[in-house]
Inverse folding.
């Protein structure tokens, strides 16, 4: 949840997660910040060109739209909030050719006026209904239980691909979650497919 602090690739991107999604042909929407894409441009291009994945907008540098928000630094004006979205759109379009259409608030923190602001910036603000609880969770079975118990048809599951130390067990949990949900008849789709947007 804290991509604003960039201190090394291993700490902020668990490549095993992407490999697992590809091996299992599991579609996903990947919310990335502009700063993340600037740090990992080849990965961002690779995601964008893979039909399994949909790139989405997670602000420029993961600043909260409202505070307090899990200790995140915050932006305090609407123009700064708009720039968090528009700067990322411009950067990702230039880098990958993709124009993002969905936005997730850093930390999920927002006010009702922020929802309108996001629509004004031509994005759909998307929250989630299944909290995997993967940030800083060191027991994969807790994440697995949260997701398996919470998922219904149409659910949006939020998970993090940062890897250690922020999301150390996400990969391990997904190795159970993906085959288990598929065996229960679920199909993983991108947000565009789910929302028809
Ligand atoms: Zn985040």
């Amino acid at each position: 949840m804290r991509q604003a602090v960039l201190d090394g690739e291993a700490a902020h991107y668990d490549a095993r997660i992407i490999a697992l999604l590809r091996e299992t042909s599991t579609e996903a929407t990947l919310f990335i910040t502009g700063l993340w894409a600037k740090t990992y441009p080849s990965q961002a291009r690779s995601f964008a060109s893979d039909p399994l994945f949909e790139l989405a907008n997670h602000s420029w540098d993961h600043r909260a739209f409202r505070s307090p928000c899990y200790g995140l630094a915050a932006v305090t004006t609407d123009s700064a909030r708009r720039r968090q979205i528009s700067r990322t759109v411009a950067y990702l379009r230039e880098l990958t050719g993709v124009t993002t259409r969905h936005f997730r608030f850093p930390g999920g923190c927002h006010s009702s006026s922020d929802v309108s602001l996001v629509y004004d910036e031509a994005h759909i603000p998307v929250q989630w209904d299944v909290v995997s609880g993967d940030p800083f969770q060191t027991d994969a079975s807790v994440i697995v239980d949260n997701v398996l118990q919470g998922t219904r048809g149409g659910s949006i599951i939020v998970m993090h691909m940062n890897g250690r130390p922020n999301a150390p067990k996400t990969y391990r949990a997904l190795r159970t979650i993906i085959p288990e949900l598929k065996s229960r008849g679920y199909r993983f789709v991108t947000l565009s497919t789910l929302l028809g947007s």
Notes: Confidence is low (pLDDT under 50) at residues 1-11. Residues 1, 58, 62, 106 surround zinc ion (CB under 6 Å).
